[in-house]
Amino acid sequence: MKQCIRAAAVAAFSSAGFCGAGMAQQQQNFDAVEIQALEVRENIYMLVGEGGNITMQVGDDGVLIVDTQFAPLSDKIVAAIRAISAKPIHYILNTHHHGDHTGGNANLRAAGTTVSGGNMAGAIRDAGVGAAIVAHENVLLRLSSETGPQATPSGGWPTSTFFGAKKELYYNGEGIEIIHVPSAHTDGDSIIFFRQSDVISSGDVFVTTSYPFIDTASGGSYSGFVAALEKLVDIIIPVYGQDGGTLVIPGHGRVSNLGDVLNYREMVIVVGDRIKSMIEAGMTLAQVKAAKPTFDYDPVYGARAGAADRFIEATYQSLGASPGEPR
Amino acid sequence: MTRSDALRAGARAVVLAGAWLAGAASGQVNLAGVWSMTLTEDFPDRLPGPELGDYAGLPLNAADRMRARSWNATILSLPDYQCRVHPSDYANSFADIRIWHEIDTTTQQLIAVHIQHFAWNTQRTIWMDGRPRPHELAEHTSMGFSTGEWVGNTLKVTTTHLKEGWLRRNGVARSDAATVTEHFIRHGGHLTWSVFVDDPKYLEEPFFRNRDYTQSEAVSIGAYPCESVVEVLLPEQGYFPHYLPGDNPFLIEFARNHKIPSEAAMGGAATMYPEYRKRLAELPPP
Predict the structure, then answer these.
(1) What ipTM describes this predicted complex?
(2) Do A62 and A55 contact (CB within 8 A), yes or no?
(3) Which residues of A149-169 are buried (b: 16+ CB within 10 A; e: fewer)?
(4) In CATH, what number is assigned to the domain containing residue B42?
(5) I need a labelling partner for B266 at 20 to 30 A (CA). Which of A38, A252, A301, B202 fits?
(6) B38 occurs within a structural domain
(7) B61 assigned to some structural domain
(8) Nearest chain A Cα to B143, which residue?
(9) Does the residue B244 lie in any domain?
């Protein structure tokens, strides 16, 4: 049940419902969803449907995708990939464990393959079956600990995990950094930096459509969220005046550049500072909500019902105050 | 017709009347060349910049007002903000511009009109070849994506895909959902550049601004390089200068110095209209 409550919050954030990876996928009708592909750079695409944005890198080696949206969309996603490249899908990278980003893992994995041989094939008999799913180890822990009918099937779990600051790949002629940003949106977030293409796939530590969803029940925190945005700002180099240069494919929303990330970071810090000052003034969560610390940003980020309240609650709790217990 | 519609219609009537008076009967006026800014009563707003807490006559809504009141000029010292360029709907407030036309050498059709602003050396392109707008989820930029058409002798430009910007340099934000409509009207050696900003998120009504230019004999405008530097040591993480609600000590200065009631200084659509004078008479002095 706790999992379902958590998932309900994520559902409101991600515009499509889910509980774990399955419940709302069964309830929601995806028939009308179209997968659109936007070319971001010559070999990088953003696939948009329902759920988190998918980043796709294509080249001579094959196809690599970041995140997989919902399982019922997998056939359409594969079709969108095939419209751009006939090469095999070798890698799936997950930015975090939420079902709107991992729901299609098992299907997309099954649509791909892993190059195997030598020691690897001898020791692991199914090493070549399906694409590799790469993520921070907390993604595996979260997905594999789900129980009940909504649990993510084992075929959708990461097959290759890391626990350090980052993991590196070289694929399709460029270095790819999978950089862990601790305790941000969740405790398993990674941002993916395509070094030659100069594109970052940010997952939900940066979105353009809503306030941050800080999933404190999954290890997310306000300070970690700010740190993740700072990390993005550190990596991005614009052409001039905050435009162009390094581009960011956000977890949800439109292709972005440095200026967009700075604007988002500004909002997160300004609202956080206001909540911090209210906590220091001894205000309860209810009083903080009533004071509307997000009022000036609501026209931009507050369209989703409850998004502002969830952001306030998570920030309030993350900054050290329990609801109803003023400091 | 709402008051907003009336404002738009009236302003457009002025714009088009100006265009008809300007010259030739059919479109494609040559706008090319260097144009020098003409500074008159708008000098304080265009060069020194607006005063803190001066939102009078701006149709900003309550949310935008709160953002403006939180704004702290210290952000201009942050390395990431030092070279932040003016968005295309604000860039005409500054200095000289150079306009040139891109012509297909075979067909002699106009492909695009380009503008270079002296301020921050930004360039924008106004596509005249009928190309479609980018996907709504494509990158938004400071210059946006602009298409143009001739309405009589006036170049009418529509811009979308703008990144969040500002209506004024004192913290009045303009959202990334804005659509901007511009008119470029040449009157011999003079150019009028009008800007309509329609922002459904931060404006109660569209915002309208005119800027005037005079034709120059110069062939180029000055360079304006910008390089960020660390000016002061700042906290490494989680720092963004702003004022908490009620803490900004500078908001009262404009109203007090100019003897304008505080309510009027805070702007809003009502403050744009002549009838607001009646309301002014009822308000206490600052």
Answers:
(1) 0.90
(2) no
(3) ebbbeeebbbbbbbeeeebeb
(4) 2.40.128
(5) A301
(6) yes
(7) no
(8) A243
(9) no
